[in-house]
Here is the input.
Amino acid sequence: MNEQDLVSKLLAVEARLAPPVIDDEAEAAPDPRTRILQRREAIERTDPPIEHHFQIKEPHQRRVFTALLRRYGLVPYRYPRQSERDVMVQLSMAFESQLLAPIHAEMKAEVAAFFVASMERVAGQALYWDTSDAGQATDDVPRSYRRG
Here is the structure.
């Protein structure tokens, strides 16, 4: 998978999980991002935004999340002395659970698959051709490695 494949997959996730087009809008159907923005605005009329705190350990996943927030008109921030893992944002609970969380989960999986494939390719070319995981030992685990 190359970068353009990843971009296509991320856009396909958004298109699949965006709110459906209403039949009367079928001719001038807005793009998935616009439909999500419209749904966000509709949700916020009945469910006002509140401050949410997310902790995302992996830098690349945090970048995906903050880019997604910005794509949907939200502003990620952090307070002084908060860790770089912390992401704060004002959003409604319903928008987060109905749209943001499912879209982010699937995009996160696509990005992780891209990273694994890229690292296997790079490690195979630069380090050693066999990039498979460690094999299973036939002996029992030595006492020094056992937990408890």
Summary: The CA atoms of residues 60 and 111 lie 8 Å apart. The chain has one domain: 3-22+29-129.
